[in-house]
Amino acid sequence: MSGGTTEERNPRARGLAGLPTEELLRLMNDEDALVAGAVRAALPRIADAVDMIVERLAAGGRLRYIGAGTSGRLGVLDASEAPPTFGVDAELVRGVIAGGEAALRRASEGAEDDAAAGERDIGTVTREGDAVVGISASGRAAYVIAALREARRLGASAIALTCDPASALAQAAEIVLAVPVGPEVIAGSSRLKAGTATKLVLNMLSTAAMVRLGRTRGDLMVDLHAGSAKLRERAIAIVRAETGLDEASARARLEAAGWSVREAID
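^ that's the sequence the OP posted. Answer follows.
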C-alpha cells in the first residue's frame, strides 16, 4: 500500500510528462493496482458500515451520501443506481453534492469550503434514524465535515469515507472507512486512485446493504426496474433461469405481472 496522502507528490511520477505513452499508462495502471489492497484492508470497517446502514434502513431510515467535487459526483452516481437496480424508491438512497446539481456537470471547487451550506444541505434531506456517508478523499472539505456533524446532531448515523484516517472528517464520524491509496500520479487529483477507491467502497455499501435487506434473490436482481429493452431481456432471462419456462412463457408471465420479476417468479 502506498504511503502519504493524496495531496503529496508521487516520486514515481516525477518524470511523467517525458514518458512514452505506453509507459505513462503502465505507471497509471501500476498505481491503480494499489487500490484493491487499500479497500481490502478496510473491509472490516466497511462491514460495520453496511451493518449500520442495514439497521437504519430496516427501521425506516434512509441512506444519504454527501460530498464535493469528484466525491460528490460519485455519491450521486451510486444513489441514482439504486432504484433501477434494486427497485427501491428514489428517496431511499440520495446523493448530495456541494454546489447543487450544476456541480455535477461543471466544477464548483469553492463550494467545498462552505461549511454553512453543508449544514443546510444535509439538513434538508436528513432526519433522525438515517445513515449519512460523508465523502472526501482528503478529509478536509469543510462542506462535508460540517454536514456530517450536523447529521449526527439530527440523530443520523455518521460514516466517513476518506483516504486520510487522521483527517477532520474522520474525527467527525462514528465509523471511518479509510482507504489510504497514497499520492496520485497527478499530485492532488483525487479523481484518480482516490476516486476509484471511493467508487469501489460505495458499490459495496449500497450493494451489500440491499442484499442484506432482501432486495435480491441470491445474485439475481429480482427487483430491477425493467424500463428498457435491455432490462426487459434481462428480466426474461432471470425468470427463465428461476422457473425453467421458455422465452415466450416467461415474457407472458412478466407482462401479466407488470414486469415485476419477483412477482413473475413467485
